[in-house]
Specification:
By secondary structure, the chain is of the alpha+beta class. It contains 13 helices and 16 strands. Strand 9 and strand 10 form a beta hairpin. The protein is rod-shaped and about 165 Å long.
């Protein structure tokens, strides 16, 4: 049962509701933030998957076309070793060597070069077009190394057609193994442009094809100035070359745009392909959603916090009003002292405590002498001023937190003194008489000393045979004795020092003494 009671107290607490009103929006913000982060991760996952798919499609298309060219070059190598090839008619020899390769789309020039770099067979013309290519990188490479296999050259501008293309070549060996020239086929860069143009990557997206040494073969979007540029040593290309395949986010050395790079090697070729998506464009859709969702959530949370604070303020105001009403219900409106109800509660509590601890409890019942005369002669307004003055004097006579001065009816007051014996109570009564002697109402001509009080005093010791009503009755009886003895004095109840109060059980507070 302890937990429900504590929970009930918490639910009744203003601070609890204000705290919940603030924590709930914070929770909403946290949940919304996690949802937005999840949406951001979804955007990145989608971008990475898209990049991988595009990379795979492009890589397969390039590898297939290069394979077709390489098969043609291998066939040319084999055909060059056919007996009697040189005796064939030039047109027939061209058909045997090149078969139908010249009909391939985006295929550039296709030659057979001798050991001096001169064109000896031309797939596009018979007799062959004149030209020497001994200065080209592919010719020098094959001449220096007999084991290169398929060689992919740097992008060049064809001397015959003026078009940009990339060359693929294989070496021709003489019967003795010495260098006898090479077979060469090329692929126009328009092939890559046509392939890449079908893909939408956004305004800042890019596709790049590199040689393994860092030379850029082509790029999408296409720029002539980018072709043939070597970026070896850059952070991006070093990772391409080192890792072979994968993904990472890096800033481009070309234009400073931060991109998501997905890359791989093209088959077994010395080519590296990458698809690059701009980070800003990857997150553009997510950011638009984040701004809209975040704005709405912030507005709702802000509204919730404001309403919670206003609700909390209203609760505090209501609690303050209830506390004030409770205080007023226990306070005498005229004097500001605790009223009879408050006195009865405090008296019962003090009596129970005295019975538990065995410590003395003293009670003073104070009544203004001849108070009716003030009302009859000067009016109730002056009588009220007298009562206020008495209340101030009584309050000034006690100082301990547990002591209580209350107005219990008309001109009658009570002073409750826990843990106080009869001697201590007598000292308090003496101070009260001294303080009352200073009360005056100059506007009515009531001078100091004119107002006096009679006090009945009793002390109980909390024995099992005593009751709170008896203690009050004894003090009340002592008050009557003080009145009968001439007023302006204090009388102690008989036997109160010994804790032997056995007066009959009567009402806790005595009748109003309007005639006293």
């Amino acid at each position: 049962m302890v937990l429900p009671s504590r929970l009930a107290r918490l639910l009744r607490s203003t601070h609890t509701w204000i705290g919940l009103g603030v924590l709930a929006p914070l929770g909403m913000l946290m949940v919304s933030g996690l949802m937005l982060l999840d949406l951001r991760q979804d955007a990145w996952d989608k971008a990475e998957q898209t990049s991988r798919n595009l990379l795979q499609v492009i890589e397969r298309d390039i590898a297939r076309n290069v394979e077709v060219i390489d098969l043609t070059l291998r066939a040319m190598q084999d055909n060059m070793r056919m007996p009697g090839l040189a005796k064939l008619d030039p047109d027939m020899r061209q058909l045997v060597l090149f078969d139908r390769a010249t009909g391939a789309r985006d295929l550039g020039v296709m030659f057979v070069l001798d050991e001096n770099g001169d064109v000896v067979e031309d797939a596009a013309a018979s007799p062959p077009r004149k030209g020497n290519y001994a200065d080209r990188d592919y010719f020098q490479a094959h001449k220096a190394n007999g084991h290169l296999g398929l060689y992919v050259g740097r992008p060049i501008v064809s001397r015959l057609t003026g078009e940009r293309m990339v060359n693929f070549s294989r070496r021709i060996d003489k019967p003795d193994g010495s260098f006898g020239g090479l077979v060469l086929g090329s692929l126009k860069l328009t092939y890559f442009a046509r392939l890449f143009d079908q893909i939408g990557l956004g305004q800042e997206g890019a596709i790049n094809l590199y040689l393994r040494d860092g030379t850029r073969i082509t790029r999408h979007p296409y720029l002539e100035a980018d072709v043939g540029v070597n970026i070896a040593g850059s952070r991006t290309f070093d990772r391409f070359a080192r890792e072979g395949a994968g993904k990472f986010v890096e800033t481009s050395v070309r234009d400073g745009v931060r991109r998501l790079y997905t890359f791989s090697q093209v088959g077994d070729l010395p080519l590296i392909l990458n698809v690059a998506l701009a980070v800003d464009e990857v997150e553009a859709g997510w950011r638009a959603k984040a701004v809209s969702i975040g704005t709405v959530v912030l507005l709702l949370c802000g509204l919730t916090v404001v309403l919670s604070l206003l609700f909390g303020r209203e609760l505090r105001h209501r609690a303050a009003m209830q506390a004030e009403l409770a205080r007023l219900s226990l306070t005498d409106a005229l004097t500001g002292l605790p009223n009879r109800r408050r006195f009865e509660e405090a008296f019962e509590a003090a009596w129970d405590r005295a019975r538990r601890t065995g410590k003395p409890l003293s009670l003073l019942v104070v009544d203004a002498d001849h108070f009716k005369r003030y009302n009859d002669r000067y009016g109730h307004a002056v009588g009220d001023e007298v009562l206020k003055g008495l209340a101030q004097c009584l309050s000034a006579g006690v100082h301990r937190p547990d002591d209580l001065v209350a107005r219990v009816g008309g001109e009658e007051f009570a002073i409750l003194l826990p843990d106080t014996d009869q001697d201590g109570a007598m000292r308090i009564a003496s101070k009260v008489h001294e303080a009352v002697a200073t009360v005056s109402v100059p506007s009515a001509g009531i001078a100091a000393g004119a107002v006096t009080v009679s006090i009945g005093l009793t002390t109980g010791h909390g024995s099992a045979s005593e009751r709170a009503e008896a203690l009050y009755r004894a003090a009340d009886a002592a008050l009557y004795e003080a009145k009968a003895a001439g007023r302006n004095q204090t009388r102690c109840a008989p036997g109160s020092e010994k804790g032997n109060l056995r007066a009959p059980v009567l009402r806790l507070v005595g009748a109003h003494r309007g005639q006293a």
